[in-house]
Write a structure and sequence with these properties.
single chain, alpha/beta, Rossmann fold, six-stranded parallel β-sheet, 7 helices, 6 strands, 30% helix, 12% strand, globular
Length: 245
């Protein structure tokens, strides 16, 4: 299968994730990248990063206009490794979840899903209401991989760049592209951290300690009945002696 990956950058915050994917793959000439940059994605790049849209497009092998529904990546016969939408806006998530191919982002994703190829949606929104969660479930039911760019700290990141790289590395690994952008988990390395094998255990029983005497069995005799004290009735409210009526 040709080494082709579709990358879409939509209008959610976090354009750097898509840019970092393109930067990483630009160093690997064996992988052909196909970029779709939405109009809102262009605006976000200008707002959040020092890059221009032209500079981002120059990182890709092929750039497809988002309105070009007749592009090569709009057909399942055009073989790819899959697709990453980074970041994925709620609007794009909704279109993909509902198979609403109004633009090339949604159409390309729908094609990859029908062909059984991985589609990673790096949904970038918070907080999430029930409608957002429902859309994620629907997209996952269609075969999409829901991967919000949640940072991992077990690799001891030293900078924001480290966090971005680790998330991008995991996304690339999910579509089968091996990379060195993230740290592989090899087990707990902190000797002070308890593990199931070496953590706190229940105290051992000393055999010289005399056993606790058993609780005597019930004789069946009911306990003595307590004498109930008769209470003096309270004077009703409004009937206090001497109170005006």
């Amino acid at each position: 299968m040709p080494q082709r990956l579709i990358v879409a950058i939509t209008g959610a915050s976090g354009a750097i994730y898509g840019i970092r994917i393109l930067e990483t793959l630009a160093l690997d000439k064996s992988i052909e990248t196909h970029l779709i940059l939405s109009p809102a994605g262009r605006a976000t790049i200008a707002q959040e990063t020092p890059y221009s849209a032209k500079e981002v497009e120059a990182l890709a092998t092929v750039v497809h206009p988002p309105a070009n529904i007749g592009a090569s990546i709009a057909s399942g016969s055009f073989e790819t490794m899959g697709m990453i939408v980074a970041p994925c806006s709620i609007k794009s998530l909704s279109a993909i979840a509902n198979c609403f191919s109004a633009d090339l982002v949604a159409r390309a994703a729908d094609v990859q899903l029908k062909e059984g190829r991985p589609v990673v949606l790096m949904v970038r929104e918070t907080p999430l209401h029930k409608g957002h969660l429902r859309l994620m479930t629907e997209a996952a039911d269609n075969g999409a991989i829901i991967m919000p760019p949640v940072p991992a700290f077990y690799g001891n990141p030293k900078s924001l760049d480290d966090l971005v790289n680790a998330t991008v590395g995991r996304a690339l690994a999910r579509v089968g592209i091996h990379n060195q952008l993230y740290s592989e988990w090899l087990g707990m390395s902190n000797p002070a951290a308890p593990t199931p094998a070496t953590g706190p255990q229940p105290p051992a029983i000393d055999p010289s300690t005399p056993p606790v005497p058993p609780v005597p069995a019930s004789t069946g005799t009911p306990p003595p009945r307590q004498t109930r004290r008769r209470l003096t009735p309270r004077t009703p409210v409004g009937k206090i002696p001497g109170a005006p009526r």
